[in-house]
Amino acid sequence: MEGLVRITVDEIDNLPMGYEWEETGAEFRHQGMLFDIVSVKKINSKFEITALADELEVTMEKTHDELAHQQQENNKKAQKIFKWVFAPYINETKSTNFVFNNFQLLIFPRVKQDILHQWNACPYMPPKVNA
Q: Which of 32, 60, 72, 110 has its CA 20 to 30 A from that of 6?
């Protein structure tokens, strides 16, 4: 069977050189590949560990690492774009506080005054409850 590994150890906690427990007694790593324990047999004074390669989990780990790296790159790009767009308007006095130099250059959406007056004149009434 492909991906099947058998190793013999003196103690279950001590794996040979190059093997490292991910989860003791359940999963170990060898040369970047994860292996799930299938069986442990005691033969005389030694233990024979049979394990199967877990390629799906390794693939998922690689995909997760790639997505995390891509997200870091996207965050860096977004920060650069933000600084480029708002640099003319922002004076950095401290790294955490931003002060806008010229509010007239910023364009904010405006709500028409008649809509505000209409809303104030006719406030929302809760529905009537049948008694």
A: 60
